[in-house]
């Protein structure tokens, strides 16, 4: 009998399994696919590998006539081969990480059969505690011609960049892929059901991102309902209400991801779920004692991203090894859409702050006036900061190529509620990004 049995081996599992095992618990991880789950094999890591040349290309573009005379072109087949090389080895190394930490690795599809029992290929495994780290699966539009639609995994394995790419949905996946495919030379059209791309992000910066992508040739079609996809002589045809029609060579369905709750026996134990995932209490415990859940499969208001899955897995390690009995207490969470420019944000949104002017002040800094950004000729960037009544930084959002580094840098100031005087004690390297913002805090 194991002390803890994880179903799923993604970020929401191994970041808990390893410290639990190192603390002396008998731990096993069951995985039916690639070890490391989505982020390692077909999510964050693959995406950032495909984005790297885009980021470099945009930086070089900004310096045309300022030290550079040409912009390099992306060689997609070479880039894809590089992605396969970098990402292809991760599953095996993720598995080895578990083995080295003395975690038992079990391969196959797990089904819960009783409160402490899981079945994998006719073998029963029992455990004191079971952790469901099942992740999410791509949502697929339920329309005729559904089989012609592709998901994020398909896109990130494309050997040839399609000439005409249609993307349905303008969330994280839709926008990031639009930026990459556009830089790689594809004629990209993003089709939106509503009128608000990247709903969770600060909208004035989303609007600037849309303008920037439009200027590069990406088309955005708002308020469209796709009814069907058909194969035609030279590709595919999307059709929708009010005579909407669009021709494309390849279509990505980026309409979101759904919690993976339907094939692991949750119903046998009547584990409570809703459309957002598995319901848990403030200790990540499901309605069934000794069964817990972490990561994307959890029904939660926090963003379904890797660092949150890691935080939850590490919390369970502390809980199960007796280091804490406290409820999970999420810190400030930075989120980023990896377009170019990027939008990165953390803490109180300027939109929320603007609704309570007595409680918050909001300040915006335009990078066209910042000498450090002028060095790289980055004119289209801004940082917005939110301060509370004590003038402590409580929120920040940046639209720029370096937004991730700025927001990660400001994260500790926000989380630790550092005062202006405390921040002034940091002696950063000069010149550096930190120097371009620390005086503003
Ligand atoms: C295209 C894309 C890009 C992304 N980019 C980013 C990013 O840049 N930054 C970021 O923070 N997040 C990003 N994410 C989100 C991130 O990948 C997820 O938040 C993270 O992978 C969640 O980890 P998890 O462990 O909860 O689930 P997963 O990684 O989904 O792992 C779940 C695992 O459980 C296994 N499993 C499920 N059921 C069973 C069963 N019954 N038996 C055995 N095994 C089972 C699955 O095979 C899977 O391997 C991205 C996601 C996508 C799709
Ligand atoms: N940078 C990152 O951190 C990152 C990157 C990629 C994915 N992710 C994670 O992966 C998950 C999935 O991302 P995603 O972009 O697929 O989902 P999402 O929820 O961010 O976006 C889905 C989009 O599809 C649209 N949509 C939904 N139903 C539709 C329909 N019937 N017709 C047309 N449009 C429709 C929505 O309005 C939305 O714009 C999220 O949990 C996200 O956190 C994170």
From TrEMBL:
Instruction: Give the Gene Ontology MF terms in alphabetical order.
Output: oxidoreductase activity
Task: Fetch the PANTHER family from UniProt.
Answer: GLUTATHIONE REDUCTASE (NADPH), MERCURIC REDUCTASE
UniProt entry tagged with the keyword Flavoprotein: yes
EC id = 1.-.-.-
Principal EC category = oxidoreductase
Q: Which organism is it from?
A: Loigolactobacillus jiayinensis
Every copy of the FAD/NAD(P)-binding domain together lies at 2-313
Reported cofactor(s):
FAD
Q: Which Pfam families match?
A: Pyr_redox_2 (PF07992), Pyr_redox_dim (PF02852)
The UniProt family comment states: Belongs to the class-I pyridine nucleotide-disulfide oxidoreductase family.
Q: Does the keyword Oxidoreductase apply?
A: yes
Name this polypeptide is given: Dihydrolipoyl dehydrogenase family protein
Instruction: Indicate the segments forming the Pyridine nucleotide-disulphide oxidoreductase dimerisation domain, all copies.
Output: 333-434
Classification of source organism: Bacteria, Bacillati, Bacillota, Bacilli, Lactobacillales
Instruction: Check the record and name the Gene3D superfamilies matching this protein.
Output: 3.30.390.30, FAD/NAD(P)-binding domain (3.50.50.60)
Q: Which UniProt keywords apply?
A: FAD, Flavoprotein, Oxidoreductase
């Amino acid at each position: 009998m194991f002390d803890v049995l994880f179903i799923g081996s993604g970020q929401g599992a191994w970041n808990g399994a390893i410290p639990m095992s190192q603390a002396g618990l008998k731990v096993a991880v069951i995985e039916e696919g690639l070890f490391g789950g989505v982020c390692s094999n077909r999510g964050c890591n693959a995406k950032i590998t495909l984005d790297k040349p885009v980021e470099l290309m945009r930086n070089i573009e900004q310096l045309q006539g300022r030290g550079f005379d040409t912009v390099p072109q992306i060689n997609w087949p070479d880039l894809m081969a590089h992605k396969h090389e970098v990402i292809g080895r991760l599953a095996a190394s993720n598995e080895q990480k578990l083995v080295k930490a003395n975690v038992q690795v079990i391969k196959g599809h797990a089904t819960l059969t009783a409160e402490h029992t899981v079945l994998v290929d006719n073998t029963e495994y029992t455990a004191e505690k079971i952790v469901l780290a099942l992740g999410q699966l791509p949502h697929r539009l339920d329309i005729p011609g559904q089989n012609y639609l592709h998901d994020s995994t398909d896109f990130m394995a494309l050997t040839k960049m399609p000439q005409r790419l249609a993307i349905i949905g303008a969330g994280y996946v839709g926008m990031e892929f639009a930026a990459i495919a556009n830089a790689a030379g594809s004629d990209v059209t993003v089709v939106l059901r509503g009128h608000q791309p990247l709903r969770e992000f600060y909208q004035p910066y989303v609007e600037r991102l849309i303008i920037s992508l439009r200027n590069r040739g990406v088309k955005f079609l708002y308020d469209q309902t796709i009814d069907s996809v058909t194969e035609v002589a030279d590709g595919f045809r999307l059709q929708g209400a009010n005579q909407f029609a669009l021709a494309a060579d390849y279509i990505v369905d980026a309409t979101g991801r759904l919690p993976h709750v339907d094939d692991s026996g949750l119903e046998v134990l009547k584990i409570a779920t809703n459309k957002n995932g598995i319901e848990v209490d403030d200790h990540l415990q499901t309605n069934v004692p000794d069964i817990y859940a972490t990561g994307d499969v959890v029904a939660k208001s926090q963003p379904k991203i890797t660092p949150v899955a890691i935080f939850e897995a590490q919390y369970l390690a502390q809980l199960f090894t007796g280091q804490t009995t406290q409820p999970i207490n999420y810190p400030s969470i930075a989120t980023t859409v990896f377009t170019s420019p990027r939008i990165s944000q953390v803490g109180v949104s300027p939109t929320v702050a603007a609704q309570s002017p007595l409680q918050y002040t909001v300040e915006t800094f335009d990078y066209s006036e910042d000498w450090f950004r002028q060095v790289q000729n980055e004119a289209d960037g801004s940082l917005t900061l939110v301060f509370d009544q004590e003038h402590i930084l409580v929120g920040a959002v940046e639209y720029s190529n370096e937004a991730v580094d700025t927001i990660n840098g400001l994260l500790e100031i926000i989380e630790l509620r550092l005062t202006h005087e405390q921040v002034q004690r940091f002696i950063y390297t000069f010149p550096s990004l930190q120097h371009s913002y620390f005086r503003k805090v």
